[in-house]
Structures are given as C-alpha cells and as structure tokens.
Amino acid sequence: MTSQTDFTMEQLRKLVAQYVTEPIDTISDEDYLLDVGIDSITMMTIVEELRQKGFVLTFIQLADEPTIYGWHRLIKQSSADYGG
Fold first, then answer.
1. Which of 37, 58, 66, 79 could lock onto 20 through a cystine, CB 3.0 to 4.6 A?
2. How does pLDDT run across 6-44, given as a tens digit for each residue?
C-alpha cells in the first residue's frame, strides 16, 4: 500500500492517464478532466482505486473539483484528516 503522505502529483497523473482520451502530458493540472474523457463511471472507478490506496474520498468530492490539482489537494487533505 502506498503511504498516504508520499502519493505525488506525478503518481496521480499516471493513474489518471489510464482513463483520459488525450496524452497525459498534454493535460495541465488545472484542466477540467470531464473535457478529456473522465465521466462519472470513470470517476467512481478512480475513487475506488484511491480508496484501495488508503485515501478516504468520495465520488462527490472528485466530481466537485475535477482537475488533477483539485484531486491531489483532496488526497493531501484526506492524508491530513486520517493521519496518513
């Protein structure tokens, strides 16, 4: 299991790269992920992957802030809230 404190932005980008329709290196951390192939089903899959890594996140949280930067901020917040 990945330690919650060492999950980097690059690791998140690698996870997201599996699901987007554009090359990940063309997507900025601020791009709206719904515009590059992430839909609600995919988001639920990503929530589950992140939960398996120990992050306590919900679909609603990811849907409210669908950017790599936003998701990474939520991951860091989850780490702080749950002592990762």
1. 37
2. 889 999 999 999 999 999 999 999 999 999 999 999 999
pLDDT at position 81:
78
Distances 56 to 5, 20, 26, 67 between C-alpha atoms, Å? 13, 23, 28, 18
- Measured over the CA atoms of residue 8, residue 49, residue 25 and residue 30, the dihedral's sign is negative
Tokens at 24, concatenated: 């990940």
Is there a contact between 79 and 5 (Cβ–Cβ < 8 Å)? yes
CA 41, CA 27: separation in Å to the nearest integer?
Answer: 20
**CA atoms of 56 and 74, how far apart (whole Å):** 9
